[in-house]
Amino acid sequence: MKPISELYPLLSNARKVVITTHQKPDADAMGSSMALQQWLVKLGHSVTVISPTNWAGWVNWMPGTKEVIDYEKEKRKADAILDEAEWLFCLDFNIFHRTKSMTGKLQELKCIKILIDHHQEPDVDSFDYGISTTAKSSTCEMVYDFIIGSAHADLMDSKISQCIYAGVVGDTGSFRFASASASVHRLVADLKERGLEHGFVHEQLFDNFLENRWRFVGHVLQNRMEVFYEYNTVLIAIPKSDLLKYEIRTGDTEGLVNYPQSIQGIKMVALVIDRDEERKWSFRSKGDFDCNTFARKYFEGGGHYNAAGGRSSDSLEKTVQRFKEVMKENENLLQ
Ligand code: 5GP
Ligand code: MN
Asked: Of 64, 138, 195, 275, whose CB neighbour count within 10 A is largest?
């Protein structure tokens, strides 16, 4: 993988570009994609964003989201655009299988593939150019760095700023995690000077739910949360019937895994949701418990040190049982 700075001289020729990201894109995945798209369009490129799946409604305020193609819904159209692409940007994921049903298609593409990502253990051999560093708060920060490091930083306007800010807020837990470095705060200051209205972004991300979502959160915290004080661990397991009863949509479960972290002494929170095709895990930790290793070792997943995800094809009941076994196995690490 060549350094991404080697792309700068190639930016002056108009290209057909596709930007894609991980399944169920969050604020960082969607924000980085929409920011990069707007900037590349300003440079004269023809740019399509393809999401592997649908996404949360609370990112729909980002300019351009109406034109984003949902691969699961419009596979044929997306495949045709991918076949024509000269450049493929892969943002906020580092291995093709994170795009679920798009995986096979991405593997067979012959175009130039470019990685911008901050997760651990990148599959660098699959990319021609790119940057992969776990030291960065978010892919949005990395897209910002890419734009600012170019000869076209002046094209960064208030709309692009909003998208970048959204991803930074999302991935730093609103500037709370250690990843909210001095460079992140400098980025925000710079975006403010470029016209960013940060309050607007916070409202879009956090004040944009329907009543049923909060009723659901209340129900889950009351009835689905188990606290294992001897292991400093909280487990939340959500059956499909809850998702149906509360009419839960993509994005409504975002942030749920963070609430139990505020219980005194808790080191790890594990949330599992019974999705149609799999049981999907989210793991969060504080301090020296490595969620990435845990998710990789037991639940076919990965991510960051203090935030990772995984999956299981077992039933919810079996998955929960397995979790309790491995929690006990990890007793020493959880102290
Ligand atoms: P979340 O719990 O918010 O879905 O994910 C937490 C972090 O782990 C995110 O950075 C996400 O990209 C990553 N992640 C989530 N699920 C998986 C997975 O199945 N595999 C890998 N490698 N990373 C994941
Ligand atoms: Mn991210």
From this structure: 138
**Binned average pLDDT, 10 residues per bin, the chain of 335 residues:** 98 97 97 98 98 96 97 98 98 97 97 97 97 98 98 97 98 94 98 97 95 97 98 98 96 95 97 96 96 98 95 98 98 97
pTM of the model: 0.95
Which atom of ligand 1 is closest in space to residue 93's alpha carbon? 12
Closest to 119 in 3D by CA, of 45, 21, 198: 21
- Pick the ligand that lies closest to the CA of residue 168: 2
What's the full length of the chain, in residues?
Answer: 335
Which residue ranges form the domains of the chain, and what is each CATH number? 2-206 (3.90.1640.10), 211-334 (3.10.310.30)
Which pLDDT does position 224 carry in this prediction? 98
Cα distance between residue 67 and residue 45, in whole Å: 16
302 lines ligand 1 (CB under 6 A): yes
For residue 29, the CA-to-ligand 2 centroid distance in Å is 6
Instruction: Answer for the pair 196, 167: CB distance below 8 angstroms, yes or no.
Output: no
Is the beta carbon of 170 within 6 A of some atom in ligand 1? Answer: no
- Whether the CB of 301 sits within 6 Å of ligand 1: yes
